[in-house]
Structures are given as structure tokens and as C-alpha cells.
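> Could you send the Leucine rich repeat containing 10 prediction when you get a chance?

Sure thing. Input:
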Amino acid sequence: MPVDKMVDLSGRQLRRLPLHICSFRELVKLYLSDNNLNHLPPELEQLQNLQILALDFNNFKALPLVVCTLKQLCILYLGNNKLCSLPLELRLLQNLKTLWIESNCLQHLPEVVCELSLLKTLHAGSNALRTLPAQLRGLQELRTIWLSGNLLSEFPPVLLHMPFLEVIDVDRNAIRFFPSLAHLPGLKLVIYDHNPCRNAPKVAKGVRRVGRWSEESPEPRKRSGAVIEITLDERPSPPPTDKPEPEAES
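Output:
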């Protein structure tokens, strides 16, 4: 048993998890990133003290159900796999606070995510999401949601009813219009760059914006009673992209 209760087997080109790892029953952190895994042994269920499990950058087409038996998990990394859905059994992970499911094949955000009542951070970028389920508003502990690189054609309406959100990232989508976000009292940062929008989202004082017109929100100019849209040549150049990297919670 490692003294620090951590095993890191990242980048080992593993096709199978070595079974002896499952005998370390006091293990708290297990990193299996950047391998060739597509399944996990049922013996993994013995690791009931596991709090962090990293399965990103592997070949999983489905989340092994044994992961859903690890009820002490707080952080689960599933990014850069081939997941098209998540099992209903994920709801058993009621201690989960951070979920990374970016860079998969998700066309819909699995509604089971909305049952993770303690979730604080959700990374769901680089999928094929077009909408978000209305049930998401029930996640009252959620503070950060990353949706960059999806197929959103409108700002997800459910986010307008989540006043506890602190960070909203909808960078690199297909949003053409942004509603006002000034009524969200918890908001600290909104990233909306690389959208074909004609306006910046209005925010409360002190909220940082990253995107076109982040310093001001231009309104259509009126001449002789006619509304003339701002042309591309008249728009300010977009600021340098300084999108912060998501930070995992420990």
C-alpha cells in the first residue's frame, strides 16, 4: 500500500488494470489517464475509500458500472473517451463534486448528472450538446459549468434560473444572441468568445467577461428613426483569448 494512498499509472499504455491494485483497500487516489483501457475489473469495487479516479484519455465507450459502486468518489475524470451516454447508476455517486466529461460523443447532457446533488463543477466541453435539461437547475451546489466547443445555438435557458452559478463558459458555440445575465447575483466570470453573436451578455458590476465587446455592450445605432446594425468593420477587435484553464478541486 503506497504511503500517500495514491497510485498513478498514467501513460503506461495499459490495456488492463493490474489486479493487485484492487488489493490496496485504503487507496484514496487512482490515476489511470492516457492508457488504452476500455473496461475495468469488478474487483475495483474493493476500493471503497477512493475519492479521486482519473479515467480520461482512454478508450471507454461506456462507463464501467463498477465505477458507480465507489460511493466516496469526489472527483471523476472521464474526458477524452468515446462516451455517448452515462449509466443511471451514476446517481449512486452522491459525494461527487467534480465531473469531467469533456471531449466525448455526448449529444445530450445525461439527465442522471442532474441527480448529483453535491456537484460543484461540471466540465462538459467539446461534445455535441445542443441543449441542457431543465432539471439542471436543481443542482444548487453547482458553481462552475464549462460548455466550450459544443453546438449550442442559443444560450441555455436553464442557466438563467441558476443564481448560484459563479462561472459560465459557452466559448466556441453557435450562439447568436445573449440574454441579460445581470440578475445572476453569484456570477463572477462569463466566457462567451468565438460565438456568432451580435451583442455581449449584460452582467452586473464587477463580473468579468471574456469575448467580443467585453468592455462595453454596444447597442444598434439609430438614425432618423431607423435601426442600423453595427457592421463587421465597425466592431471592436476581439480581445486576446485569456480563457483560464479549469482547475480540479481537491
